[in-house]
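Teaching assistant's notes for section 4

Start the section by putting this record on the projector. Ask students to predict, before seeing the second block, whether Protein-ribulosamine 3-kinase, chloroplastic will look compact or extended. Collect guesses on the board.
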Amino acid sequence: MVAADVGLLSFSARIPSLSPPPPPPCLRFPVNKFKPLSMASMSEDTVREWILTEGKANKITGIRPIGGGCINRASRYDTDIDSFFVKTNRSIGESMFEGEALGLNAMFETRSIRVPKPFKVGPLPTGGSYIIMEFIEFGASRGSQSALGRKLAEMHKAGKSVNGFGFDVDNTIGSTPQINTWTSDWIEFYGVHRLGYQLELVKQQYGDSLIYEKGQRLVKNMAPLFDGAVIEPCLLHGDLWSGNISSDKTGEPVILDPACYYGHNEAEFGMSWCAGFGGSFYTAYFEVMPKQDGLEERRDLYLLYHYLNHYNLFGSSYRSSAMSIIDDYLRMLKA
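Reveal the predicted structure now:
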């Protein structure tokens, strides 16, 4: 993970920039070799059946494992007509992949930034679940930062909700449940379903009453940070770090593995500490979605959600970053 080059953003001196903590081992992807079709698990018969019927392929020519995270197994299915990207998980039901598919479809429908189109979610015969989606051949690099910023802003501008802040289903951020109950007020939604939920997990998992109590104090006093901001529910990817950003063979940006919901567009920058966004990204983004008053003061508030999630997922190496943000805000707000 790399610290973001924030370019044109001049963040408030009252909230110092944080050095990113070390990346969790889970996010270092292995390189896998070709796997012959005959070695494929029989539990994936359902996947092959869909590809050969509804997927309209006549023959599967190979199955190739693809390096991925520690949560799911990822594979490329090559056929006589096209290739499919398949993720399987033998211990989790369909709800996780259903949430991912709904998010991918919502982003796809904005006709803005490219995402893999989902085709099918279902149960594996021996337990667990799968998702089949479009296979996108990636280019040699992540592509243009300015194109990424512009396309992401176009998605935020196009993807609006009449239901308020939230999403049609709960989903996951990594393997952590992400609660998306529809809420009319953004400050309430972010305080309860983002920061509050993560703080509850920290307390339950680690017995960390200090960060819990200070974090709840921040939640109760954070409203002034939004003074002057016009906040509309925008469709967010929700987990936009470098591992979820690429480009296709034509150089067009591609984003994947979402944790979608409708929220304040600035919350999309919450993983910027390991997304590598540069100055050209922000310049292009704000040409489409104008910068709001107070963005610099809110920046670390949106980082905090992801630092707390990493604390819950990967352990105490992320605690100091989360606590530093909380303490800085409590001093700033005199809370």
